[in-house]
Specification:
The chain is about 55% helix and about 10% strand. It is mainly alpha-helical. The protein has a three-stranded mixed beta sheet with strand order 1-5-2. A two-stranded antiparallel ribbon has the order 3-4.
């Protein structure tokens, strides 16, 4: 996905794109439209971008809801007619299968339903151990040693992500809800708060 905050579009391709006011993830929608038009998308890895992360748990949760609702809206828009798929839709289908059937959410949900409480605690322990092993591997692979002390926080936040993902699936795909708020997160200025900055790639479409 060409992220909304760090993307550039050629006017040649932009003229052929349609902005859909009913899609919360407009950047994903536009990216898929570029694919369907046989346009080119390039990643510029050395571009510097300043962004802000959600400051509170509530803002983080609201942002997750907006992203996941937008994702499922895009799925409904572009994947309802398999006979018209051109290629990118198959990748979206892969993402759906992977996220719904092969992730921790399904395993933990089945554990809560089928297993005694003691075994649920064991399942959560095993889940955290696997999560930690992957995190430690990433830590040494990328030389990001801050990952080690952030692991417990990220593990805790991952449950917010699972909840938002499943809730959004039920709302958009099962219940066919359409009208959602933007869930705009609160912005803060650098005069009294630290502005998180970093290096992120810019994606360009043309």
């Amino acid at each position: 996905v060409a992220p909304g905050c760090v993307s550039m579009y050629s006017t040649d391709i932009l003229r052929h794109l349609k902005f859909d006011a009913n899609i919360l993830a407009e950047d994903m929608d536009l990216t898929i439209q570029v694919h369907k038009l046989k346009g080119k998308i390039k990643y510029i890895h050395n571009a510097k971008v300043i962004t802000q992360d959600p400051k509170t748990i509530k803002d983080y949760h609201n942002q997750l809801l907006r992203w996941y609702r937008g994702f499922w809206q895009v799925v409904r828009k572009h994947c309802e007619s398999p006979l018209n798929w051109v290629g990118v839709e198959y990748y979206i289908l892969y993402l759906i299968i992977d996220s719904l059937l092969l992730n921790r959410a399904l395993v933990l949900l089945l554990s809560l339903i089928m297993l005694p409480y003691v075994m649920v605690a064991s399942a959560l322990t095993v889940d955290f151990i696997v999560f930690a092993i992957i995190g430690i591997y990433a830590c040494f692979k990328t030389s990001r040693f801050d990952i080690l002390y952030k692991l417990p926080v990220v593990y805790f936040l991952s449950f917010f992500s699972m909840y938002a993902y499943i809730r959004s699936f039920l709302e958009v795909i099962i219940l066919h809800k359409k009208n959602f708020g933007w869930n705009k997160v609160k912005r803060y200025g650098e005069e009294n708060e630290k502005v998180y900055s970093g290096i992120a790639g810019v994606t360009s479409a043309y």
